[in-house]
Amino acid sequence: MNRLLALAAVLSVAAGFQHAKAQDVTIPVLVPLTGFLSLEGTSQRNGAALALAAPPAGVKARAEVVDVGVAPEAAVNALEKAAGQKPLAVVASMLGAQVLAMLPVAQEQKLPLLTISGTAQVTSGNPYVFRFFLSDDVIKIPVVRYLTADLAKRRPAIIYQTTSYGQGGHASLVANLARRGITPAYEEGIDVAAKDLLPSITKAMAANPDVLIIHLHAGPTALFVKQAAQARITVPIMAGSAMSQPATAALVEPRDLKGVCTESTALPALGVSPAMDDFVNRYRKAYGGDPDAYALAQYDGTMMALAAVKAGAKTAEEMRAALSRMSYEGAAMTYKSDGKGNMAHSAAILCYDGTSRTPKLAKRFDAIDSPP
Amino acid sequence: MERASLRGMGLFGILAGALLSWAIWDGSPYGPRVVATAGTYALLILGYHFIFGQAGALSLAQGTFFGLGAYVTAVCATRWGLGFEITFPLAILLPSAVAMLVAGSVLRLASHYFALATLGIAQVALLIATSWQDVTGGATGLSGLPGIVLFGMAVPRGWPLAAFVWGLVGLGVLLADRIAGGVRRLAYETLREDPNAAAASGIGGARLRFLAFALSAAYGGAAGALHAHTVRVVSAQVLDFGMMITCLAMAVIGGRKRIAGALIGATLLVLLPEGLRFLADYSMLIYGVALLVTIVAAPDGIAGLLGERAPAFLPQAAPPPPKPAKGGLDLRDISKRFGGVIALDGVTLGLRPGEILGLIGPNGSGKTTLVNIATGFERADRGKVGFAGETLSSRPPDDIARRGIARTFQTPALVPGMNVLDTVAVAGGSSHPEIHHSRILARAAECLERMGIGTVAATSCGDLPPGAQRSVEIARALALDPSVLLLDEPAAGLNETEQSELGARLRVLAARGLAILVVEHNMPFLLGLADRVICLDRGRIIAEGTAAAIQEDPKVIAAYFGTEP
Amino acid sequence: MAQLLLNGLALGAAYALVALGFVLVLNATGAVNFAQGDMVVAGGYAAVAFAGLLPDMPGILLLPLVLALMAGLGLLFSALAYFPLKRRPPTAVFISTIAGGIILQNGITALFGSAPRSAPLLLGEGGFQGQGFLADRQTLAILGVAALLILGQHFLLSRTQLGRQLRATAQDRDMAQALGVPVNRMIALTFALGAALAGAAGLLLANRFFVTPTSGGDLMLKAYIAVAIGGWGSLPGAVLGALLIALFEVLIAGWISYTVASVALYGALLVILFLRPQGLLGEAAQRRA
Lengths: 372, 565, 289
What we know:
The structure holds three protein chains of three kinds. By secondary structure, chain B is of the alpha/beta class. Chain B is 57% helix and 12% strand. In chain B, strand 2 (149-150) and strand 3 (153-154) form a beta hairpin. The longest helix of chain B is centred in the middle third of the chain and has 27 residues, at 205-231. Chain B starts with a helix and ends with a helix. Chain C is mostly helical. In chain C, strand 1 (127-130) and strand 2 (133-136) form a beta hairpin. The chains are: A alpha/beta, B alpha/beta, C mainly alpha.
C-alpha cells in the first residue's frame, strides 16, 4: 500500500512533464504566484493574461501560466522549458534576481523577455530584455525632482525594505538626491518580517526631516502609513510604487492617507483615456478588483508584443527586432526602447487627499532622461 | 557497498533512467538543466546525510553552507574572474572552515538546541548577505556568473554540464561511502542510538560529529558552487530558511540513512515542483499535498521502503594477531561524591595481567561507580587511574577503551536494531581504523566464536535473550584487543550451565594474560572463578581474600545483612 | 519610549500565544510543529472571513468564532499530519508539519489571494492619550485578550480534570496510557488548543500588522526561539521568551536599527545557548525525539 502511494506520487510528477505543446502564438507567462512576491506576480499574470485573452484582430494567442516561486533557479528552469515550445516572447518575473538569472538563457535561446522588473542591472546590454516599467534608477528622478523642485524639501528621511525592491530604490534615491547636493537626514533598511514600525518612525522623526520617503512592499507601506497617522506625524510621506497598489490602500483608512504621495508609471483609473477605460473595465470584469500599475504595465508590454505579431513578427528574432524599433501607444503611455530595452519613459506622482483610497494625479513626467 | 545500499542504488537507477530517457526524448535544453539541478541538490543532500543522517544531529545550517559556497564562487568569479579550479576548492574550504570554527561550541549542545544554534548562525549569515551590499550585491545578489571554466577550458552548457555535475556527484558518493560507509556507518549508528555503547566500543563521539559537520559543510559548499554556475545568479534566496526546508524535505523523503536516499530525495523533490509548475496558483498547494502523502506512505524515506538492512554474511573467523598485554590496572585512592552521598572513599585496588578479581558489595556500595571511573565514564573527585605506566584519570571513555580497558554494562548497552556481528565489528573498527572492513568483520566473527555466540551473528541484538546480550557485550569488549576487562554482573540472567560455560571462557581469556574484574553478587559463580575477591561497602574496601574466605568474613556478612559491626 | 514599551508588550503578548500553542504540541507529541506560524496566518484569515460575513462586528465578538474554527482546523491537522505518523521517527513529523504548513499557506492564497488583509479592531477605536503616548483601545485589548487566554489556558491545565489528563499525556505518554488516560484524544485536543491559541494570535496580529499568506514562516521562527530561550517545553518559559523577543525587537530597533536588533537577537540566542543550554527557566519536555 505504502509503496503504491509512493509510486502514485512519482507518476503524478511524471504526468506534469507531459503537459502541453503549443499552437497559435504562445507567450508563456513565467511569474511568481507563490512566495513573498505573489501579490505583485499575480498582478503581472493578470495583466499579461488579459492581453493574451484579447489580442489584436487577426492574432490568435494562448497564455500558458507557470509559477516560478521566488528562486532564480526555478525561473531559469521554467524559461528553458518554455524555450522548448519556440515561443515568440516570454513574460518574465519582476523579481530582480530571477530576471537577472533568465537573461543569459534568453540570450542563448534568442528569446525576448517582457518584464516589469525595476532592478536597475536588468537592462545592461542584453538585447533580449524589454522592460515596460521604470527602472529603479529612473523612477526616482521624478520623485526627487518633485520633492526638491516642487515641494522644496531638503531634509528627507529614507526608510526602505532590505529586499531587491527596497535596496534598489534606496540606492537610486540616494544617488539622485546627491546630484542635487542633498544627503538624507536619516536612512534605515527594514526586514519584510519586521512587525512594529514605530521604532523606525520614532528614529526618523528624531532626525527632524521635512519629508519621509519610504520604499517598502505593500503590507509594510500600509503599516507605516497607519502607524505614522497614529503617531500624529504631519510630515508628508512619499511612498514607493507599492503604495499605488489598490491592495495597499485598502488596508488603511482614507483619512490616514492624507499627505501621502506615491510614484507610479501611470494611474490605472477610469476617465484617463479610452484605452485605459477599456483596460480597467475588462480587468474589473475578469478579476473582480481594481488593477494596479504592475498589471497595467505588463498588459501594455504583452499587448505591444502582440501588436508586433500583427505587424508581421513571426519568429522570436523578428519579435526582438520589432520591439527594439517600434513605438507603441499603450493604455498607460507610449512605449519605445531607449536602445537598452527600457520601454517606459513616463512617470506620475499620485497623491491622496484623505477622503478616498484613490489617488489623484499630482504631476506627470514624460521623457524622463536615463541617468548619466 | 552493502547489499541494501545496492538495492537503494537500484531504485535510484530506475528513477534516474526514467528521468534521463524523458530528458533525451524531450530534446530541449530543459532536460539537461533539470538533470544538472538534481545533481546539485544530490551533492547537497549527500553532505547533509553526514550530520543529519549519520551523526543524527538536526543541523539547520546546511542551506547556509550551500549559500556560502555559492557566494564564494560568485564573488571570486565575477570580481576576479577566477577559474573553477580555484573557486571550487575555495567554495569547499570556506564553509568547512566556518563549520570547524563553530563546531566546538554548537556540537556539544543537545538535539534541539543544536538545531536552534545552527538556525541562529544561518539567520545571521542571511542578514550579512542582505546587508553587506558592497560585496554580496544585497538582496538582488550577484549576476553575470560565467559557466564552469576549468583550467581555461569551458564546460559547455547542456549535457556536458549535467555530466560534469553528476561526475562530481559520483565522486561524492564514492567519497561518502569510503568515509562513512562500512564499519564507520555502524559506528555512527551506534553513536546515534546509544552513546554509552559507542563509548564502550571505543568510538569518539566528539570526533565523529566534528567530522560529520565539517564534511556536511564541504559538500554543501561544493553544491553551492555548482548551483552558482548553473543558475549564474547568486541572491540572498540561497541563504533563506526556505532553502533549508527544501534540504530537510529532500533528506527525509529520500531516506536519511542511505546514500541512495540522498540521490532519490534530491531528484524527486527537484522534479516534483518542476512537474507541478504548470498548475500556476495551485502548484505549491499540490506540492504540499504530494509531500504529505509521500511522508505518510514512506515515513523512513523512500529508500527506507526497501526494508531493513540485509542480514550480515558470515565471514571466515580470523584470529587476531597475538598482542602482548600492556599491563594491569592500578586504581589509587579513588574518591567520588554525588551531591552529599559518598560513593567511593579512597579505594585503592590493583589488577594484574592474568588475574580474575571479583568485586562484591551490597547495592549502592560503589561497585559500578568504580567501573565507571576506571573506564572514564565518570570522573573521580580524587585519586588516579593508572594503566601500563600511564595515568588515564582525565581521558574520555572512548580513548580509554581503545587503549585497552574494555567494559560491559549492568544493563547491556546495545543498539537493538543492529545485528551481533556488526555490533562487535564497530569496536574492532574503532581500535584498528587501519584494517580493511572485511578483516574487521572476520575478527569480529572470531570474537563471537570465543564467546560461543557465532550462531547468532546475524541476529539483531534486541532479539536476543539477556544472557546472550551480555555475551555480545563481552565479545564487543574483546574486539578492542583489551588488556583489562571490567565486567558488570556478567552472570545475571544466566542458568547454571551457562554460568559455568562463561566461567570457563573467562578463565581461558585470563590464561592468555587478560586482567579481568568481575562485579558480581553471585558468590557461587565467583567461588570457582575469581583468584581474589574484594568487598566494597559504602565506598570503602572492607575485606579482601579468596572467595571462600570472603564468604566467611564477618564484616562482609554484616555489610550484606545490615548489622553494624 | 513608553509608547515603544507598550507596543513591544502588545507584540509580545501575541507572540506568547503563538509560542504557547507551539510548546503545548511539543510537549504532547515530542515533535516540532513547523506549521504553527501558518496556523497563526490561518487564524488571521479566519478573522478576515468572519468579518466579511458579519460586517461591523467588533473583533472581540469574532474571537470565539475564530477559536472554534481554528480548534477544528487543529483537529483536522492532527488527523492528517500527526496521527498517521504517531509511532514514526520525529523527523517524519517534521516533514508532515512542513507539508501541512505549505498546504495551509497556499490554500489560503487560493481562497483569499495574496494581498495583505486586515482584521477588524477588537473594541473599536479611541483610547487614552497620555504624555506623548497613546494607550489606544486596541493595544490594551490585545494585552487583555492575550492575558485572559494565557490565564485561561493555565487554569485549564492546572485546575481541571481534563487539564490533568492533558498534562499527564505531555509528561509521559506511555504512563498516561497505562493509567487509562485516552492519550490519542488528549493529543488531538492539544492540537486543537494549540491551533486555537495560534488563531487568537492571528486575530490580534492581523489588525495591527496585517496578514499575508506568507507571514507564517517568521512567526514560526519567533515561536521556536521563544520556546528555546524560555526553556524547551516550559509553558511560563515560552511566555517569558516571547515577551523578551518582542521587547528586544522593538526596543533595540528603536534604539539602533532593525538589522542590529535581528543580529543581536540571534547573537543573544547563541550566547544563551552556550552559557545556559537548559534555557532561562529550565527544560520540561519529555525526551522522545
